[in-house]
Amino acid sequence: MAERRTQLLEAAVRVIAQDDVRGLRVEKLTAEAGVSTALIYYHFKDRAGILRAALEHVNDCARSYTEPSAGDPRAPLSHR
Questions:
Q1: pTM of the full predicted structure?
Q2: How far apart are CA 30 and CA 33, in angstroms?
Q3: 27 has a pLDDT exceeding 90
Q4: Could you tell me the CA-to-CA distances from 70 to 18, 45, 65, 73, 76 in Å, in that order?
């Protein structure tokens, strides 16, 4: 379930990158993610919930890139 949510968040981030925050529509997200509208609403209550979660996802990814790591600093980038 967490993996599906992550896939939906990444699709939402792509839609936001293409169409801006105001362009985020559930219909566009379902097309980008290849899922039903019901699945979107199962994971997120509404459009505001999608937006909030997508921005938190971007923030978490950015934080992981900037935190010092014990190993190779390129490691977080190589898994994407």
A1: 0.76
A2: 5
A3: yes
A4: 35, 38, 13, 8, 11
Tokens of 43: 């994971």
Place of tokens 């925050």: 21
| Both structure tokens of 31 | 């097309």
Q: What is the pLDDT of residues 37-77, one digit of tens each?
A: 999 999 999 999 999 999 999 998 888 777 766 566 666 66
Quick one: CA dihedral 20, 25, 26, 32, positive or negative?
A: negative
Q: Which long-range contacts (CB under 8 A, 24 or more apart) does 58-64 make?
A: 58/13
Alpha-carbon dihedral sign for residues 51, 52, 57, 63: positive
Angle at 17 between CA 15 and CA 23, to 5 degrees: 55
Give per-residue burial for 41-69: e unless 16+ CB within 10 Å, then b: eebbeeeeebeebbeebbeeeeeeeeeee
